[in-house]
Amino acid sequence: MTALPAPELAVSRWFNTPEPLTLAGLRGRVVLLHAFQMLCPGCVSHGTPQAQRAHTLFRHTDLAVVGLHTVFEHHAAMTPVSLEAFIHEYRLTFPIGVDAHEGNQPVPVTMGRFKMRGTPTAIVIGRDGTIRHEGFGQEDDLALGAILGSLLTEKP
Amino acid sequence: MTALPAPELAVSRWFNTPEPLTLAGLRGRVVLLHAFQMLCPGCVSHGTPQAQRAHTLFRHTDLAVVGLHTVFEHHAAMTPVSLEAFIHEYRLTFPIGVDAHEGNQPVPVTMGRFKMRGTPTAIVIGRDGTIRHEGFGQEDDLALGAILGSLLTEKP
Amino acid sequence: MTALPAPELAVSRWFNTPEPLTLAGLRGRVVLLHAFQMLCPGCVSHGTPQAQRAHTLFRHTDLAVVGLHTVFEHHAAMTPVSLEAFIHEYRLTFPIGVDAHEGNQPVPVTMGRFKMRGTPTAIVIGRDGTIRHEGFGQEDDLALGAILGSLLTEKP
Amino acid sequence: MTALPAPELAVSRWFNTPEPLTLAGLRGRVVLLHAFQMLCPGCVSHGTPQAQRAHTLFRHTDLAVVGLHTVFEHHAAMTPVSLEAFIHEYRLTFPIGVDAHEGNQPVPVTMGRFKMRGTPTAIVIGRDGTIRHEGFGQEDDLALGAILGSLLTEKP
Fold first, then answer.
1. Fewer CB atoms near the end CB (10 Å): N or C, chain B?
2. What are the Cα distances from residue C42, in Å, to C37, C45, C118, C122, D82?
3. Does the predicted model carry a pTM greater than 0.80?
4. Does chain C touch chain A (at least 3 C-beta pairs within 8 Å)?
5. What dotted CATH number matches C11-153?
6. For the segment C42-91, what is each residue's pLDDT rounded down to a tens digit?
């Protein structure tokens, strides 16, 4: 398998982090990128709690869990103001970026760069910055754990 | 047990109904009033799906399931525009009213009249318009079913 | 709807009750009869816990929850000795009878009398001793609650 | 961390395998050893289905999932005859051994050798035959997946 390098994030606003994050800055660490929308039922019931659990479970490793709010529908309903309340109510503590919009494009920039098909999408990036896994929809805990455990074991 | 009459609803906007609803107009029917907020985790995971299931399960009876969006926090995050997208994404089909606000009061009018303590709150109103059950938090399906089954059996 | 009278139970051994039970002796009460096998996955995960919850929830009413171990397969694997350990480990507290076997018939007597199709089966019997509901497979809590609540409200 | 070598299995009867298994024979592979009792509620609801899912999920890797029926109570209720019906009804397809008993000892031999505290117990053994993880009770999928993924990545 030859893995392609992950494109960079384009984020217009960050929550839960004192500094903006970039994938370039996270090079050398394993990254779990969780793309979601706050009004996507499958995200709220499964993907987002899974990302939160991964953030907690792997806190002593060099895994970085990064959320990305990739709004591609109902834009007026899922503004950063609403997202902030969502993050508060669901007690999310991992860094979450708002995927940037360009012009009138409904699909945000990072979502386009990664060619994501919808939400939730889980993308796992290796220490070398390449995409090692991408999954759209419900991701099995045991399978995701195995991917993360495997990449964390690889020598930097 | 002596039951108090339910106060009337004060709703600023309705979804999923061609006509505004009033409890006076529903007299003679059993009513399950489901008070929720779209960013309340316990509503989204439990209370609101329960109300939707009750709406479907009892569709051939004269039970009326009525949702009430009682926003008492994060007001800017839970506008009717956001609620409309929420209703669409979660495929809710029962009538839902937006609890009206008066002046700068954070607690909406109907929520105040019923003296609700938070969301989700389930209120069951008998055919005679009196409050027969009020529950704050997670409502057990078997217990709620028994209350509804009992009231539906009472002679009008 | 015209309801048929429930046939009598044929039980070879009882657990969780000082005295053998009969449907004749329970006349005047509503009865939830839960037919199960201890090695039936759908019973263990759903039906039996539901019966236990009903037993607890309705303990202040005149509902009688009665379990019936209707072994029709793997007879040597589900003896009363095994059932006793099962009842202990799963902390079941409602009365449970072992459905009697006659000769070499694989299907036990009560199961045959009720013409049950398998396990789990939930049968609800009204105060007048007639069968008001019979369900094979997973029984929805809200729906079962409504049936029980309705029958408990009927005048004796 | 220095890992101790796993003691050998002592099994009186095997299911789901044409040949008896030994840990010595599995040297070079990662092993997930799932110790359970068929009447242990936490095994039936969580541990055993997890082992089955691991068996399916990792079938293309060199993980070996091995079940061990470690009966230390209710011996007459959990005989191999009952276990065989249990395996059939729950559609378990991974190899399962009956932990051997010696004399009148209630605790079976392998359970004693591993000093297990109860059921379910999950033990993960590395390619070198050492115990890398031991967990009593409910094992988180994400955490277990990470352990397995990590060990599978280690060079043989």
1. N
2. 9, 5, 11, 12, 17
3. yes
4. no
5. 3.40.30.10
6. 999 999 999 999 999 999 999 999 999 999 999 999 999 999 999 999 99
